[in-house]
């Protein structure tokens, strides 16, 4: 497939596309990386909230499940951010190389730029010359119709012939300059296409890497969700109440009744202890 | 399973847990909902960036894939945020109902609060009475050892007997008050446990709803990623260049050479057109 852009503007279009294409993937990744960072930080904050929140009540073990889950999600998204930042670093490096390639390409294409300018100039000359010849022919035609004197006709014919010769030379030069333009432009278009293909291949590679990282993270996040679901399922209500009683319980024994047996014997009541009798 | 917290502090522990438990799930969801909202907004912004970014170059169709994908991700997270907000609304409603239940429970448990206070007061009296009786017994013992006069011994014995009677009455009262405390406390603990069990059941239900919403979103997000991957795969490099040439191409024909045939015949050169002959 050939990019057929052979009019005078074609070179600029191709050159602009080459020069401004390479920085696109960077902006494509900087924003997502920042989004992942924000998400990760929020999840860390949530995890801290879950551990500071209210770890005293019956619900405490559930908060712990939330904390663990949020911490893991924070890590997943942090890892994704890191992978994206690695990609951005690769892209920056690639971008620097591209700048060098573009500079070199620009130098190599000086001939094409000159050919474009030459064809533009010569195209103007050709138009002017054509109009000149056209005018002389019209003049000759008019004089013939009017039956002008032979001397005048011969003079006009001479002018027309000279204009035709000049126009012919102009055409010749235009064709020569145009041929050169066509050849140079064809080479440059080929070169632009090669650079563009290599660039797009590289970009697709980068996007594949990006896509792969996102996929990995998605799988990890899915595992965290599954774990969360399982952990919530595993914490029974009985279990929550049991744990709460163990942590906050103020005692397992019933207070019981105090016995007054022995009070009236009083022979050695010193240090008498209040006996606790368990009521059923 | 019974929450055995029969010391005087037990009632406060249980009451505090009931009163401060119900608002926990709300804070558990407000933060994640906000996180999802932020994520969704960032993705929308990214989508706008992708469509405004640089839709002119060869890479334009790829930007479009990014835009579609970011837009869809924004929608997924927005939907999750909405589901979480629905859950928060449910929790607020539930919280209001809980406040009423707690108020009613507090009124019903006035008897328990009084029994707790009575047992605390009576426990103090019992201690004092025991110390009084103990003191009298020691005095009697001392007088006996010293071989005090009979009259003095009889007087001390009488005092000891009275103190024993008073102590005995105190024990009786303490046992009566204690029995009442035990019964009331047992009833209240049972009631607290029922409320707590219902509350934890409700909380688990809410968390399951939350977990379910997250799972749904995760599946949707996975589909968006898969689509993105496929779309990137489907856009060939040839295709990108083809589209670029179609949009930005400045023409398909080669400029060609201008023919000078017919210039010298000049019989009717008016309006002569520059014929383009295609060079091979």
From TrEMBL, chains A, B:
Keywords annotated in UniProt: Coiled coil
One Pfam match: GMIP-like_FCH
Domain named GMIP/FCHO2-like FCH: residues: 10-252
Coiled coil among keywords: yes
One annotated GO biological process: clathrin coat assembly
GO cellular component, one term: clathrin-coated pit
Name under which the protein is recorded: GMIP/FCHO2-like FCH domain-containing protein
Organism (species): Labrus bergylta
């Amino acid at each position: 497939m050939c990019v057929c852009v052979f009019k005078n503007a074609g070179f600029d279009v191709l050159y602009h596309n080459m020069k401004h294409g390479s920085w696109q993937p960077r902006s494509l990744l900087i924003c997502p990386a920042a989004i992942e960072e924000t998400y990760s930080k929020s999840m860390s904050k949530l995890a801290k909230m879950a551990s500071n929140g209210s770890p005293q009540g019956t619900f405490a073990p559930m908060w712990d499940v939330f904390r663990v889950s949020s911490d893991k999600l924070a890590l997943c998204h942090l890892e994704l951010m890191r992978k994206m930042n690695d990609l951005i670093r690769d892209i920056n490096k690639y971008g620097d190389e591209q700048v060098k390639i573009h500079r070199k390409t620009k130098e190599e294409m000086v001939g094409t730029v000159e050919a474009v300018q030459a064809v533009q100039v010569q195209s103007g000359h050709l138009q002017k010359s054509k109009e000149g010849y056209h005018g002389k022919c019209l003049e000759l035609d008019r004089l013939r119709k009017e039956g002008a004197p032979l001397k005048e006709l011969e003079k006009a014919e001479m002018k027309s012939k000279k204009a035709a010769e000049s126009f012919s030379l102009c055409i010749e030069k235009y064709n020569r300059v145009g041929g050169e333009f066509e050849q140079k432009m064809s080479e440059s278009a080929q070169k632009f296409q090669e650079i563009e293909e290599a660039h797009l291949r590289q970009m697709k590679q980068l996007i594949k890497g990006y896509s792969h990282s996102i996929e990995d993270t998605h799988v990890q996040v899915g595992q965290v969700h599954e774990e969360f679901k399982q952990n919530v399922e595993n914490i029974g209500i009985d279990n929550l109440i049991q744990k709460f009683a163990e942590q906050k319980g103020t005692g397992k024994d019933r207070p019981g009744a105090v016995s007054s047996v022995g009070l009236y014997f009083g022979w050695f009541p010193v240090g008498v202890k209040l006996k606790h009798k368990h009521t059923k």
